[in-house]
Write a structure and sequence with these properties.
1 helix, nine-stranded mixed beta sheet, mainly beta, about 210 residues
Length: about 210
């Protein structure tokens, strides 16, 4: 059974990352009993422990490098799954799926989308228990980083591809297993994140 659908839209979201580190130190050996009393030894131990704790270095900041889209040459084929391939030209997105081997095309120059407004499109095909998902993203601020697709089977993390030269648009893609009875409303939301952890563009289908 095969289902296909197409949507369009745009919206906002944030994420955060945190880390922590630990430090350790060794207890000093107790001084000989004939030169230092037990009280003095205990005081020395407390003083050294406090000094070590106070001087422990703060954990070094971890530099986070956000993902960025894979840059492809015009016409370069990207295999998302067996039989599911995508490629880009200056005119837009091209793709084939296992049940649709003839190339399909989604234009970015025909006037049907506004590259100046954040948006995401969705093309989905469900065949033999598998969903082949992809679409355009465009118009967002900053640099796109990753994509999360909310489906009836759970959240799917997809990938991004773009042409060189900051064209203002790119293509996302993902695949997912579909339970029996899967239908065109299999996808409920597509969110393309930016490198700052916000939302580049978003699509909600219902």
């Amino acid at each position: 059974m095969k289902w296909t659908l197409k949507y369009l839209a745009g919206a906002v979201l944030t994420v955060a990352v945190a880390g922590m580190a630990t430090v350790s130190y060794a207890a000093p050996a107790e001084a000989p009993h004939d030169t230092v009393t037990k009280t003095e030894a205990a005081q020395a131990w407390k003083s050294r422990a406090a000094a070590v704790t106070k001087s422990a270095a703060k954990p070094a900041a971890t530099k986070h490098t956000a993902r960025t889209p894979r840059i492809v040459a015009p016409g370069e084929r990207v295999t998302a799954a067996p039989g599911f391939r995508l490629w880009l030209t200056a005119e837009g997105k091209h793709w084939v799926t296992p049940s649709s081997p003839e190339p399909e095309f989604r234009s970015v120059v025909d006037g049907n989308i506004d590259l100046g407004t954040p948006g995401v499109s969705l093309q989905a095909e469900i065949t033999d228990g598998r969903a082949y998902l992809s679409g355009l993203y465009y118009g967002g601020k900053g640099v796109a980083s990753g994509v999360d697709v909310e489906t009836a089977a759970g959240t799917v993390h997809g990938k991004l591809i773009e042409l060189a030269g900051h064209p203002g648009w790119g293509v996302w893609y993902a695949t997912a297993a579909v339970t029996a009875g899967g239908s065109p409303d299999f996808v409920s939301q597509v969110t393309v994140h930016d490198t700052e952890g916000g939302v580049y563009a978003q699509l909600t289908t219902r």
